[in-house]
Amino acid sequence: MIRCQKKLLEENGICPVATTIDLLSSKWKVLIIRDLLPGTKRFTQLKTSVAGISQKMLTQSLREMEHDGLVVRQIFPVVPLKVEYSLSKLGRSMEPVINSMAEWGNFYLDQNPDKRKELPK
């Protein structure tokens, strides 16, 4: 297990846990990665699949993730402009982390059934 012994070591770039948290600094980024794991999506597909995210937040998150090397943005020069997003090799390496989060989330919800929300009808 990796530990950061001192508060100073919790800064991004020094502590690997802090670095990971910084790269996935919002729930939206984790959900975007989850939704890109099956494959490439267009912006509107992501907007639909990541329930509750605003267009502004999706745009901002995708730009940050592209800058960090987690997402690849491909532009097709057609009218109207077509843009697709996919995970980079680095972004795809987050799959075991996302799967572990899902597994733990299911464990938690099994232990706390009152926290489980029903799907909207």
Uncertain parts: none
**Which structural class matches the secondary elements?**
mainly alpha
Query: Largest sheet at a glance?
Result: 3 strands, antiparallel
Order of helices and strands: HHEHHEEHH
Kindly state the percentage of residues in helix.
40-55%
Based on Cα principal axes, name the global outline: globular
Strand content: 5-15%
> Rounded to an integer, what's the Rg over CA atoms?
17 Å
Number of helices: 6
Give the total of beta strands: 3
**How many angstroms separate the termini?**
43 Å
Describe what this molecule looks like in 3D.
This protein is mostly helical. 49% of the residues lie in helices and 12% in strands. It is built from six helices and three strands; from the N terminus they run ααβααββαα. It has helices at residues 16-23, 27-36, 43-49, 55-67, 89-92, 95-111, and strands at residues 41-42, 71-76, 82-87. Strands 1-3-2 form a three-stranded antiparallel sheet. A hairpin with a 5-residue loop joins strand 2 (71-76) and strand 3 (82-87). The N and C termini lie far apart (43 Å).
Write the layout of secondary structure elements.
Elements: H1 16-23, H2 27-36, E1 41-42, H3 43-49, H4 55-67, E2 71-76, E3 82-87, H5 89-92, H6 95-111
Antiparallel strand pairs: 1-3, 2-3
Give a short overview.
The chain is 49% helix and 12% strand. It is mainly alpha-helical. The protein has a 3-stranded antiparallel sheet.
Task: Tag the structure with descriptive keywords.
single chain, 121 residues, mainly alpha, 3-stranded antiparallel sheet, 6 helices, 12% strand
